[in-house]
Task: structure prediction
Amino acid sequence: MARINLLPWREERRKQRQQEFYVLLGASAVAAILVAFVGLWFIGSQIDAQNERNDTLAREIKALDTQIAEIEELDRQRDRLIARKTIIEQLQATRSQMVHLFDELVRTLPDGVKLDAIKQNGSTLTLSGFAQSNARVSAYMRNLDASAWLKQSEIIRIEATGVDKTVPYQFSLKVNLEDPNADKGEADAAATTTGGTP
Result:
């Protein structure tokens, strides 16, 4: 029987497998390095893209903050304009009130009464003057209450001074200034709002 020595063949086969293993190991290492490089590159590109988005958002937020500040300034300016408009409307509404006031003061003033001071605080007038008698002051108050522009007269004080013999009594009284057209204007506005006719 012939003997065949298989050791050299096995040795060569082992070396060949070791070489294949090292080649596969090297290829795996290269592939792992490539995968890691590609992964790092991808992550870096994602980070760069996110940073760019963050910068864009920061710029947009800054622009919006500027616009918000402009809007707040416009709101303040609008409020100032509305306040001015309201004052102008009030002045226009009461423009003729002083004319009516002085006209009513002349119309309601009876003989034997003279005024020396008129003070206004809002819609309240303080009238000071001299009269021939208490009855003249009472007549004056009745005339004021009967007026369309002056209501709710109230005596503050009346006293005999004797300084002027023709009008020896000095008096002070309060009266409310009212606009008879204001109720009509409010009624017209209410009728317009509810759809009715004034």
User: Anything to note?
Assistant: The first helix runs from residue 7 to 93. The mean pLDDT is 82. The first strand starts at residue 113 and ends at 121. DSSP finds four helices and four strands in the chain.
